[in-house]
Design a protein that fits this description.
The complex is a heterodimer of chains A (about 325) and B (about 260). Chain A has 8 helices and 18 strands. Chain A is of the alpha/beta class and about 325 residues long. In chain A, strand 4, helix 2 and strand 5 form a beta-alpha-beta unit. In chain B, helix 2 crosses helix 5 and helix 3 packs across helix 4. The relative contact order of chain B is 0.17. Classes of the chains: A alpha/beta (about 325), B alpha/beta (about 260).
Chain lengths: ~325, ~260
């Protein structure tokens, strides 16, 4: 039987992120074939709530409760995770393709001299415990199935909304407390401040539903229409390169080649023509809706549902219609 | 300051890329310097203008060196190409290992790279080089302020719910994200000059590496199979007049797509 499947938990202010539950759900599915244990690495402080929410999803929780993990820096995470990996030799180590995952995993893989597949949109596993990681290349124009050398663990980061969270997993994790090993003098980097993004919305890479507008919205203040629609859908507002370059919207909300790739369950594009730079960022969204007044707009080639029409008419009407629908439930 | 910038020539986002066979791609011959690498070059040049010193652009590629020429035309001082037949089919780790072998005895203050190359979109090489060299790194920075005399940098890193400010001692490696700067457009005269510039070639033996450590032999991951993207079914246009089209959309999203 191959060694364990490990998932690095991500959390924000004690609340575990959805991607962690997605990865654990996938790990549990794999383990049904192989009999592997599924363990969670949880690093941080004030983690009672996190432990509680993770308990049904995992066989073991390696709990490292130490102030040196908050906020995240690669040094303290790397030292401690590498030491646990050496001791327990997991077969697989998974994390989210998040700002933490993208900062930590490549460095950790080099440190452990093992293989790493970044930003995956699918994982599968054979009975022999060999992982196959599917990931987009060239902005999603092609995909590759990656396989790993004999080195272990097989490491991968996975995009949000890749797996369904399986609420029926009914484990009762054993919590293993680990004393953090850190030479404080070895810490190089120091976080000295944090500017929280305006609004309490999820990042566009984390949201289930993303609504976006491009230059077709004509003025920055008109994004209010999008905010209102996002509000009823409990989604987030994205945008295109053009509006970011105009200074209308923040870079963090840009979808596409020089911005972010999103894998939303529902993506709605309003007044977005469908330039290749943009649509490369939405290739792994499940359902795509396009609204544009140009019937020949390229965006319709990448959509599941299309409406030729004026976004200033359609979007507010859609908001009202959804409000009616949700309030009747 | 002694600054190295890791650069890569990649297919333009508009280039056609198709699956030719399970293990081969067909890529249209339309290349450019990975945009995030240009941001890294620009960041290096700005520091040179402020503190003096030298900017060297470095690539690992057996054929494509235009990213080096782009760097020179923007104002970099020197261009290095690591090239060797055994580097074919490298993965990001063997690339990082090879670049590190070149860099390890160089007197650098700062290594800059793009947040990720716009072909494999992996974002591995930068942090992996930092690990190999034993220097700190910060991934995806949107702000950079160097204090040369204190050998320290203040950087701003983008995270999901905001921006994080960090201090980091030098030497260090930073990967650069859009928002850090706007890369300069080189003058035509400098583009001409860059066409003629001598690119220094470095091979494997001069790095003290064996062919078994690099390229496909040293790789930790490989492509088992290329796949075309899953095709979306043809778009369903909702042709009803307003406001019935909105009602129809809601119905479809709820009953057919089941996403709301």
């Amino acid at each position: 039987m191959p060694n364990d499947i490990w998932v690095l938990a991500e959390h924000q202010e004690g609340k575990v992120k959805k991607i962690t539950f997605e990865l654990l759900s996938a790990g549990v599915e794999f383990s049904k074939k192989t009999g592997q244990k599924v363990a969670t690495l949880l690093l941080g402080t004030g983690l009672e709530e996190a432990v509680k929410s993770l308990t049904p999803f995992t066989d073991e929780i390696y709990l490292l409760d130490d102030t040196s993990f908050t906020p995240y820096t690669s040094e303290s995470y790397l030292t401690n995770i590498a030491s646990l990996v050496r001791e327990h030799q997991p077969s697989i180590l998974l994390g989210g393709a998040t700002s933490t995952g993208k900062d930590l995993f490549p460095r950790l893989a080099m440190h452990l001299q093992t293989g790493y597949a970044p930003d995956c949109t699918g994982l599968s596993m054979g009975e022999d415990g060999k992982l196959v990681a599917k990931r987009p290349l060239y902005g999603g124009k092609v995909f590759a199935e990656m396989i790993f050398s004999e080195a272990r663990p097989q490491m991968a980061t996975v995009r949000n909304n890749t797996f369904l969270v399986n609420d029926k997993v009914d484990k009762s994790a054993k919590v293993i407390s680990i004393v953090s090993q850190m030479d404080p003098s070895a810490t190089h980097k120091k976080v000295i401040g944090f500017e929280k993004a305006a609004g309490a919305k999820l990042d566009i890479t984390e949201a289930d539903i993303v609504v976006a507008a491009g230059r077709g919205i004509k003025a920055p203040e008109n994004f209010k229409i999008m905010e209102d629609l996002a509000e009823v859908l409990k989604g987030s507002v994205g945008t295109t390169r053009a509006t970011v370059d105009e200074g209308w919207r923040d870079l963090k909300d840009q979808i596409g080649k020089s911005g972010k790739n999103i894998s939303a369950k529902l993506y709605m594009a309003f007044g977005i023509s469908g330039a290749i730079h943009h649509v490369l960022g939405i290739t792994t969204c499940k359902t795509v809706v396009a609204v544009d007044n140009d019937p020949n707009a390229l965006i319709f080639n990448y959509a599941d549902y299309g409406i030729v029409g004026d976004l200033f008419q359609i979007a507010p009407a859609l908001t009202e219609e959804l409000k009616k629908l949700f309030s009747s439930e | 300051m002694e600054i190295y910038v890791l650069v890569k020539q990649v297919p333009d986002p508009e280039a056609m890329v198709k699956v030719k066979s399970d293990t081969e791609l067909e890529i249209e011959n339309k290349y450019f310097t990975s945009y995030f690498d240009e941001i890294a070059i620009e960041a290096g040049l700005k520091l040179k203008e402020k503190f003096g010193g030298k900017v060297t652009v470095l690539t690992l590629d057996n054929r494509k060196v235009d990213a080096l020429r782009r760097g020179i035309s923007m104002g970099a001082d020197e261009a290095i190409q690591i090239t060797d037949p055994s580097l074919e089919s490298s993965d990001q780790f063997t690339i990082a290992k090879t670049l590190s072998a070149y860099l390890q005895d160089k007197p650098f203050d700062l290594i800059l790279a793009g947040r990720q190359a716009m072909d494999d979109d992996a974002g591995i090489v930068g942090p992996a080089v930092a690990e190999y060299l034993g220097i700190p790194h910060v991934h995806s920075i949107v702000g950079l302020d160097v204090n040369d005399s204190k050998k320290e940098a203040k950087v701003v890193r983008e995270v999901e719910n905001g921006k994080e400010n960090l201090t980091c001692p030098l030497p260090a490696l930073f990967t650069c994200q859009k928002g850090l700067n706007t890369p300069r457009i080189p003058l035509v005269m400098n583009v001409m000059k860059a066409m003629k510039v001598q690119i220094k070639k470095v091979d494997l033996s001069s790095l003290g590496l064996n062919p078994g450590d690099v390229g496909s032999l040293g790789a930790k991951v490989k492509v088992q199979k290329y796949l075309p993207p899953a095709k979306r079914p043809p778009v369903k246009m909702i042709k009803e007049d307003f406001p019935d089209n909105v009602k129809m959309l809601v119905k479809l999203l709820r009953e057919e797509a089941k996403v709301i």
